[in-house]
Design goal:
Blueprint: H1 37-49, E1 66-71, E2 74-80, H2 87-95, E3 103-106, H3 112-120, E4 125-128, H4 144-162, E5 167-169, H5 179-188, H6 191-197, H7 206-223, H8 228-237, H9 248-267, E6 276-279, H10 296-309, E7 321-327, E8 338-345, H11 378-384, E9 395-400, H12 409-414, E10 419-422, E11 430-431, E12 434-435, H13 438-441, E13 446-452, H14 468-488
Parallel strand pairs: 3-4, 4-5, 9-10, 10-13
Antiparallel strand pairs: 1-2, 1-3, 6-13, 7-8, 7-9, 11-12
Helix pairs in contact: 1-10, 2-3, 3-4, 5-9, 7-9, 7-14
Length: 490
Amino acid sequence: MQSAEGPGDGQVAAGRRVSTAGTQTDSVSGQTPRLSKVNLFTLFSLLMELFPPVEQQKKSQVKKTGLVVVKNIKMVGLHCSSADLHAGQIALIKHGSRLKNCDLYFSRKPCSTCLKMIVNAGVNRISYWPADPEISLQNEASNPTSTEDAKLDAKAVERLKSNSRARVCLLLQPLVCDMVQFVEETTYKCDFIQKIAKTLSGCNTDFYTECRQERIKEYESLFLISNEEMHKQILMTMGLENLCENPYFSNLRQNMKDLILLLATVAASVPTFGHFGFYCNGSQQTNDMHHQSLPQEIARHCMIQARLLAYRTEDHKTGVGAVIWAEGKSSCDGTGAMYFVGCGYNAFPVGSEYADFPHMDDKQKDREIRKFRYIIHAEQNALTFRCQEIKPEERSMIFVTKCPCDECVPLIKGAGIKQIYVGDVDVGKKKADISYMKFRELEGVSKFTWQLSPSHIDVHEPTARENGIQKTQSLDEQQHQSKKLCLGNH
């Protein structure tokens, strides 16, 4: 079976930063850059490899791997390997014969053990990140046995690929023009960064720049191979000789670097910073297991997923993403007992043309031509296209990049979702035809908003009027200490 790995196949583009299709509507010509679905699925696979470990990963030749299962261009599964099971094995356990005609996106090329099973399940296509595979080819020279085993596995994978109906390929598309710059600019304005900045002198966002640089460094070490010759050797061992010649090799590496830069930028938008996190207000504290908060690192990780989804928006002004998870009893996945339920971003109705509906929300314009009555909200899409039912006996949670509006709050409660994790900058406000009044009064659902931990708020801190010098020094010290915490917690 021919792969999509060589020049001319159209999957690894020779040019850089071209427009890509794949929207909720049939066509799009919006004013802002958007992530293609292929790149969204690829980035989600990398992000799933970074899912906070719920158990100690055994040191072995097998590298932790993230996996996204896609059916009918919708995500139906998010997984990562555990200490005992590879990502492909987990997909078989979780989905079984439902994998038929699905597309699978791996953060590493799957090993022969996984590939033979998922091919046997009748998957349509298997895409993977073109760096070090699941059975690592980057072993120490002092361990020749492991290196030889990895090469033998790579040969077996190539033979399985060549004799299967499934298309095993690379699906890396160049980002649209100015996409990375757009993501960086909008990240500065997101709820999570702005709320931290307001606690620092002069709305300083230097902490974000440092966090972003740390994430870039971390992700490049995980997902890129710094030595170009070593990268070529690994590609050739995996049967990707066609990509080792320029301009294909240089274009491939640039596309990979761009995607890592974008992922690091989005990840830094929900930073580990001082004592900021997702917390309930005092009156909402409860001992009910269904309403107890997630560990902060897991909550941040899921919110980063929602932030990624926001860059698929068809709303040229406000990108919103939402993702729903639940917690069951099974724990074979690297996500522990947590499992993916659904996700969405704000977009116009399925099947419509981009120009069919108004896109304006200017208060000075006629109310008839505003977008609010036509656009489907991220929470609504996540509920509509969910791949699992929301079970009342299990803890379920939705992560939304913006405060849910009055349209969505009753839907979230009615669906039986137990927890909301959100930025709350718009709480209690009314903007044009959109109201955010109901969220504050919502009962029966635990609301975890991005804020400074209530247990670390110093109510006795002197004001600037009382002691201007002390206030300035206190903020400077807080900023310095928070930077250290931001960088040290990783």
